[in-house]
Amino acid sequence: MTFEDTRTILTILKTEYPQSFRGMSKEDGRARLNLWAELFADDDVRLVGAAVKAIIVAGNREFAPNIGQIKEQMRKLTAKDEKTEAEAWTRIHKAISNSAYEADAEFRRLPPILQKLVGSASQLHDWATMDSDELNTVVASNVQRAYRTMQERETETAKLPSDIKAFIAGYAQHFALAEATEAANG
After folding, report:
1. What pTM did the predictor assign?
2. Sign of the CA dihedral 150, 155, 159, 162?
3. 46-77 burial, b for 16+ CB within 10 Å, e for fewer?
4. Mind listing the pLDDT tens digit for each residue in 123-154?
5. Cβ atoms of residues 89 and 128 within 8 Å
6. d(CA 116, CA 10)
7. How far apart are CA 91 and CA 110, in angstroms?
8. What is the DSSP letter of 84?
9. Using 50, 70 and 90 to split pLDDT, how confident is the model at 94?
10. Which of 14, 85, 92 is nearest to 56 (CA)?
11. Strand (E) positions, the chain?
């Protein structure tokens, strides 16, 4: 979204929610415009506009939405049908049921997000040989909680501007390299 696109979005918000902009100095207006332009720079103006309009037509607010609320609405508008925790566990449980002898094949059949959650084919095999009561209570609970956490983390990360995502990725790589170097020297 360009700087001018951002100005247009803020004008729409100012028109619908004048009380949110009442008494704002020119300096405060410029600061808001600059912040919004920076934080929406990677976003398609049509999606931002659709999110703003969806919030407006919901008609359940007196004040203009903040950046986070608009980003959340954008996520809702573009969200794929995400699996619930129970659906994720059902899919993993099905893979477990065939993993005493076919763990590698079952692991490869899992969607990438569930592969990341499970970790490895050997984990599927270990779960397949586990007591079913423990599998269906302790492991199921832990997997569902981990899936929920993973989904929340991915949702929050998706809202970030690309420069912050790049910084985080670089920082994580640096941290992983430092740990690997320490382990090799340790």
Report:
1. 0.61
2. positive
3. ebbbebbeebbeeeeeeebbeeeebbbbbeee
4. 999 999 999 999 999 999 999 999 999 988 88
5. no
6. 40
7. 8
8. P
9. very high
10. 14
11. none
